[in-house]
Amino acid sequence: MRKVDHDSRREEVAAVAAKLIAEQGLENLTTRNLAKAMGCSIGVLSHYFANKQEIVLAAFDWADERIDSRIQEAIRSRDASLETFVPIILEGLPVTPESDLEWKVRFNLYTYAFTEQRLRDAQRQKLLQFRSMMEALIGTLQKNGEVRRDTDAALITRLAFDLVTGAAHSMLMLPFEKRQESAEQLLGLLDQLRPS
Amino acid sequence: MRKVDHDSRREEVAAVAAKLIAEQGLENLTTRNLAKAMGCSIGVLSHYFANKQEIVLAAFDWADERIDSRIQEAIRSRDASLETFVPIILEGLPVTPESDLEWKVRFNLYTYAFTEQRLRDAQRQKLLQFRSMMEALIGTLQKNGEVRRDTDAALITRLAFDLVTGAAHSMLMLPFEKRQESAEQLLGLLDQLRPS
Amino acid sequence: MRKVDHDSRREEVAAVAAKLIAEQGLENLTTRNLAKAMGCSIGVLSHYFANKQEIVLAAFDWADERIDSRIQEAIRSRDASLETFVPIILEGLPVTPESDLEWKVRFNLYTYAFTEQRLRDAQRQKLLQFRSMMEALIGTLQKNGEVRRDTDAALITRLAFDLVTGAAHSMLMLPFEKRQESAEQLLGLLDQLRPS
Amino acid sequence: MRKVDHDSRREEVAAVAAKLIAEQGLENLTTRNLAKAMGCSIGVLSHYFANKQEIVLAAFDWADERIDSRIQEAIRSRDASLETFVPIILEGLPVTPESDLEWKVRFNLYTYAFTEQRLRDAQRQKLLQFRSMMEALIGTLQKNGEVRRDTDAALITRLAFDLVTGAAHSMLMLPFEKRQESAEQLLGLLDQLRPS
DNA sequence: TATGAATGAGTTTTCATTCAT
DNA sequence: CATGAATGAAAACTCATTCAT
Q1: The CATH number of the domain where B139 resides is what?
Q2: Structural domain tally of chain B?
Q3: Is residue D24 in some structural domain?
Q4: Range of the domain at A110
Q5: Is residue D164 part of a domain?
Q6: Strand F-contacting residues in B 18-37, CB cut-off 7 angstroms
Q7: Is residue A6 part of a domain?
Q8: D161 inside 8 A of chain C by CB
């Protein structure tokens, strides 16, 4: 009970911090701003986090997990067929305000990671885990004849990741109303994966 | 003048600032650090830039132009054939220490742009310009029968950009020794562009 | 709260700032000096004032109000007769260390106002209000036959103000021991106001 | 010749500095601003003045002398009669743009003098000299029967000074178009000096 | 003489962190 | 647990002064 409260309060702080990071940038996240946005006093923050860096890392984690769990959910809730990729990839792109926020935080995280070995390692770990799941899925599709077999599942996976990352990046620069169109253009590519 | 040309001194400041941003992150770029790295006093900086923000923007510009001019140079120095894409794309990826630095700065710039409308607009402008050049090149290749015509040149361009961006991003997380391999994997894709 | 009331702390800062301005001049009022004189850390100042300019304005206000309330008190506590002017005017001149300080700050304020429209407007507003009060008083004295009626009450008021201002100014240049004499010389003038 | 050049250049600097002080306040007088307003380089200033403080003092002197010499000129160019006071006093008030500037600088000087013993002494010296000249003039008028003899010449002088100082002060807060009227109101007082 | 680049001490301001209440 | 006043190090920026050219 105590524990749950404590954890949910931590998550709330992380979520609010993530929002502020997305909207105003990491450099404008101050303890005062955060406390104000939380509607609490500065002192409260130190009950849940040892220092500001921990808050930032928690915000990073929070956004990161939201993106990933969203995609995993999309994967889990469908049979393995090429058509299922459409919603999966859409979940991976910043087409809604929620995912816009999360991607902005994630790119802040990536940029931060350039100078933080630990963060970089943690990210690579996560990434590898995620990729292997994806690779297995594609392998299944290849076995079922839904995806061409002349290209390595690992390569397809890698492509998909880099492409989605790059596309997410481009889309964050676009106004919201153009993003859906941009996403659909990308989905047209899926046909290239079909066996000829 | 006492020492050197005004513009080249400005560029020197921008370059050193870019180096510090890449190595230690934007948040650790202080006027003190910068002056120290330049081997000059803090006051010098204010001779060449009105304030820190201008220095940061100049550093962003500096890195940005280096990447672009590197790619453009690669394009200009070759005939238009599919094979020429290999070195062009390689120039676009962070496989050398120089381009590693430049890409890191560029991603800092992108992140910074999330909260700076002006910067975002300027980036989009540049990007569009660059893309149209790329698109023309691909169009030429299609006319020469070196690139399949069943896919729109604009789409190929967009894909290439997002893929290179995403790949550059992934590679920055890798240690240097693995990057060449990663780049080559990507280049294997070029075959997919050949007319079947 | 940890120590004291917010408003009284603000006033304390203003008062100490006024003291420093009077003693060392506005140009030597630094946040460091002020914090030192307050016996607190620099950071405290920013709890009570958004920036230094606000502190300066508060110090100006503080001194200004002290002079005015001192005179008004002198007026209020007496019947309206020509003799009462003596203590009233004396309260308006820098004959005590307190009023010396306040007048020095007030002249700093005036000088500052030369380049600050807002301050100038605010001062004029206050002045007009004060004058009309004075004018009413003189009007009453004229009605009672204590002050000659061949001169306009408004003109007398204006003269009194300019004369007191000028005299205050001159007296600030004098050592303390000569000020009382100087003030008395001025008071001799009051006889000129009697109806002949 | 050299000497003349040197001196006239010094005066030019002082005059430009005075202008800047009047327009933007002493705190905004920087060597850069001054050099810019002079249309020369910063280094030039150090040829004519040892440091900034000397420039400020020279600017103070410049304005001070202009006011005084203007009044003395008005005195010298007329016979000693009560009517001559009108133009004399008018020269002493800030009714023209030139005298506005000079009075603003003079009040900056006075304020500065609060914390500078030397300046204060120099001012008192000048003032006494000026007063004695004025007193002699009034004495002459009294002998000629143009000014009432029941008031001490020294007191009249002192009053005139304080009143003009205070009036000058008030007028600096007024917009230009109202100053003439304000000055005339003051001149009405001269009649009070006539022997009844 | 004139220039203006360079210096660096000093200023204001910000902000994570601490801790008495 | 919560508050927010207090701290003070560190940041950006200013500016009089110096001095090589």
Answers
A1: 1.10.357.10
A2: 1
A3: no
A4: 57-193
A5: yes
A6: 29-32
A7: no
A8: yes
Interchain pair A167, B166: CB under 8 A: yes
In a domain, residue B19? The reply is: no
Q: What is the pTM of this model?
A: 0.91
B70 is near strand F: CB distance < 7 Å: no
One DSSP character per residue, chain A reads -HHHHHHHHHHHHHHHHHHHHHHH-GGG--HHHHHHHHTS-HHHHHHH-SSHHHHHHHHHHHHHHHHHHHHHHHHHTS-S-GGGHHHHHHHHS--SHHHHHHHHHHHHHHHHHTT-HHHHHHHHHHHHHHHHHHHHHHHHHHHTTSS-SSS-HHHHHHHHHHHHHHHHHHHHHS-GGGHHHHHHHHHGGGGGGS--
Q: In chain D, which among 36-95 make CB contacts under 8 A with chain C?
A: none
Q: What is the pLDDT of residues B110-166, one digit of tens each?
A: 999 999 999 999 999 998 998 898 899 889 989 988 888 888 899 989 998 999 999
Q: What is the pLDDT of residues D97-142, one digit of tens each?
A: 999 999 999 999 999 999 999 899 999 999 899 889 889 988 998 9
Residues 60-119, chain A, CB closer than 7 Å to nucleic strand E: none
Contact C111 D115 (CB under 8 A): no
Length in residues, chain D: 196
User: Across the interface, do C104 and D123 touch by the CB < 8 Å criterion?
Assistant: no
Q: Give chain A positions within 8 Å (CB) of B173.
A: 110, 113, 120, 123-124, 127
Q: Which residues of B touch A27 (CB under 8 A)?
A: 26-27
